[in-house]
Amino acid sequence: MGDDNGVEFLQWGLPKRGYKWRGFKKPRAQVLKRIRGRMEELNINGGYKEYKKFLEENPEEWETFDSLCFVTISKFFRDRKVWDYIRDEILVEYLQRDDREKPVEIWSAGCCNGEEPYSIAIIADQLMENIPGKSDLQILASDRREELLRRAQKGHYPASVLKELTGEELSNYFRKVDTNGKVTYKINQELAEPIEFEQRNIRESLPDRKFDMVFCRNLVFTYFINEEAVDFLQELKLILKPGGYLIIGSNEILPDTSWLEKVTTAHPVYKKMD
């Protein structure tokens, strides 16, 4: 089954579910693999054209198609310089604020296998070592896929997703584990204490609480069509606290938004202006 036919199929089907093809172009192989598995389940032997016809004749199948359109590319401290900036210029101010009885509330949207929320917990722990007094941190980590959340909660990772960590970080926050003869790394359990994992499809609803910081990296502004990205921002405005921060992916472009201001030209970090 040729890749060209798969590309043509995705270019047809993705926009019908509010996704843009450009975001899926590079990681398309994993999406097409799931779709081929679905076609096997349905005993569809005529390739993508036959599955296209099946979708047109069975509207309920679109929900299943939608559930196959996700990407699981992630790692700890993706774009490390962004993380260092957030730690040294933004998060430190929250942890040092006077009203420390109020927790710092952070949302990791689309947390995948948990690399992002654990990265947040690591930089917070690094700061807390030098900040007197107790600074509470609450991290909500959400994803629409239950199996990804289960993986995140287990906190087992291959070395390939840990390359951005320093040797000190690796030894401080992970322990080496032999898993069926293969070396993996297990997150230290205390690092998971401030993290709440939640199954949520952000295209349907956002959390019913307010946040100081929202990490929405390589998700909405990579995979959603512009109209859905704008809708997401309108809802986000209601739950991002005044002066709060939105962090997006380094290669993403934010739609024109009057209530967010980029705080540095070097990194994709935005601050709520009202």
Q: What is the mean predicted local confidence, pLDDT?
A: 94
User: Structural class of the helices, strands and pairings?
Assistant: alpha/beta
Q: Tally of extended strands?
A: 10
* Main beta sheet: 7 strands, mixed
The SSE order reads HHHHHHEHEHEHEEEEHHEEE
Spatial strand order of the main sheet: 6-2-1-7-8-10-9
Strand portion, in percent? 15-25%
Q: What's the level 1 CATH class of the largest domain?
A: Alpha Beta
The low-confidence runs, each spanning 5 or more residues with pLDDT under 50, are none
Question: Considering DSSP H and I runs of 4 or more, what fraction of the residues is helical?
Answer: 40-55%
Distance between the termini: 52 Å
Number of domains: 2
Specify the overall morphology: globular
Task: Kindly report the oligomeric state of this protein.
Answer: single chain
Radius of gyration over C-alpha positions, nearest whole angstrom? 20 Å
Kindly identify the CATH topology of the largest domain. Rossmann fold
